[in-house]
Design a protein that fits this description.
Length: 146
């Protein structure tokens, strides 16, 4: 168990690796000041005491592609976050197996507003797949119901 103030971090996960974070459309909104879609900082909030990710080095070792992380999550997007950048922000990366999740891990550490903005800016540069909006779905009816 880590001491108070220590951030759990698995040193066997190399700095050169990435982690992959699923992005729901709720976290990918139109920025009124820019008029373009943009990630919100909510995409980097903890659920419980950590932020859920997939560990890139484990995906590669298992012969998996990053896109498999969203295969069972229609409409979700995917971003890559470099492990070394997470560690520079005082965050730690830990493997945490979950049934049905390919190469699951968690990112621990305090995610202040400033940290979340830095994560958002990193992620905006590293899209693997952007979330599908209803406007992107050719099967959705248009405003006239057609």
């Amino acid at each position: 168990m880590p001491e108070a103030g220590d951030v759990p971090d698995d040193a066997s996960i190399p700095d050169e690796s990435a982690v992959y974070r699923r992005i729901t459309l709720e976290w990918y909104k139109v920025d009124p000041s820019m008029g373009d879609r943009r990630l919100t900082t909510a995409a980097f909030s903890d659920l419980g005491d950590a932020m859920s990710v997939a560990i890139g080095v484990d995906l590669e070792a298992g012969g998996h592609e990053p896109a498999e992380v969203v295969a069972n999550h229609p409409g979700y997007g995917l971003v890559a976050l470099p492990v070394d950048e997470l560690r520079r922000l005082g965050l730690g990366v830990v493997r945490s197996a979950i049934d049905g999740e390919v190469c699951h891990g968690d990112v621990y550490g305090k995610k202040t507003r400033s940290t979340k903005k830095k994560l958002r800016d990193l992620a905006e540069q590293r899209w693997i797949l952007k979330p599908a909006s209803p406007d992107d779905d050719p099967e959705q009816p248009d405003a006239d119901g057609e």
